[in-house]
């Protein structure tokens, strides 16, 4: 199920981690990312890695920007928990129907 809840390409920010965390001008706040009407919505997000899930030839990272959390699927395998990163990805939605209800989730794909 984690495979379905993650996505995106990224590069890391090697600068100092300011406190409190501030979004760059180009980043979309995670709380504003919604279920896409098409698969062509591309966004930039910036946040800290909270969880990592290894996948076949990829990694899934849960990113928190202070406004919300989202899973990101990335080719990068070198990010660590607590590290700040910037991702560019397409907004995706995976439906997970259980007992007549949809427990799907939005994620970013590289």
UniProtKB/TrEMBL annotation:
Q: Which domain of life is it from?
A: Bacteria
Provide the protein name: Nucleic acid binding OB-fold tRNA/helicase-type
**Native source species:** Richelia sinica FACHB-800
